[in-house]
Amino acid sequence: QVQLVESGGGLVQAGGSLRLSCTASISIFNINTMGWYRQAPGKQRELVASMITNGGSTTYADSVKGRFTISRDNVKNTVYLQMNSLKPEDTAVYYCKSTAYYRTYWGQGTQVTVSS
Fold first, then answer.
1. Least CB-packed of 25, 32, 70, 102 within 10 Å?
2. What number of helices (H) and strands (E) belong to the chain?
3. C-alpha pair distances (Å), 7 with each of 19, 32, 42, 116
């Protein structure tokens, strides 16, 4: 069906930046929504950012508003999460999520660690 491959995680110092990528196995025009979730140790998985693919409407968690930006590249069938001014509390496994063909798909997750 639809596969999502994530990349871009790593270890950075507080105040640094990372860009996560999520590449879909189908045209992004066939994907209704895409978003990023994260799960920190001992915490629930939470929404970070999402977008309606064919419209550009975006939503951000209050904790990342103004620091993170979700965007897409239609040619590469890829959605990005640009993360700036990273904080230690941003440390988590980040998961890409998409909705297509009336079903939900998840990426494998990528670790983001922010040191103080």
1. 102
2. 0, 11
3. 9, 21, 23, 23
